[in-house]
Backbone:
């Protein structure tokens, strides 16, 4: 299998093995803070698989979302952050290697602070001050 043929299986494996457990950890911490949160895996209207973390406020209005989306044509991964209807989405296009624990913990920690104004406990525990 060449690298183009390997992209999608590698992407899906990285979502299951790395991203999904981290997204679920963030969702659990959001729920501990009294918010609603969900993790969803699906395909978009073009057949591109994605994984999405959504954090909702008390009135079930979306506070923020973080998505990892594949582009099966370009063989790229898109990290997408959104923070409500009045802010632009932040998109970073990169390769599948960006779906690793260190990158995602860093990105999700910053995302959580911006979303709910709080640090992620499980990231703090994994990376104590001075790490």
Residues:
């Amino acid at each position: 299998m060449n690298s183009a043929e390997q992209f999608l299986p590698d992407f899906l494996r990285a979502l299951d093995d790395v991203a999904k457990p981290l997204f679920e950890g963030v969702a659990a911490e959001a729920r501990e803070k009294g918010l609603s949160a969900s993790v969803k895996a699906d395909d978009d209207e073009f057949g591109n698989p994605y994984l999405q973390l959504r954090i909702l406020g008390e009135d079930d209005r979306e506070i923020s979302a973080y998505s990892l989306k594949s582009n099966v044509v370009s063989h790229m991964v898109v990290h997408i952050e959104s923070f409500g209807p009045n802010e632009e989405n932040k998109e970073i296009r990169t390769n599948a290697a960006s779906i690793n624990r260190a990158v995602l913990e860093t990105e999700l920690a910053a995302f959580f602070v911006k979303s709910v104004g709080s640090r992620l406990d499980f990231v703090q525990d994994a990376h104590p001050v001075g790490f």
The chain has a mean pLDDT of 88.
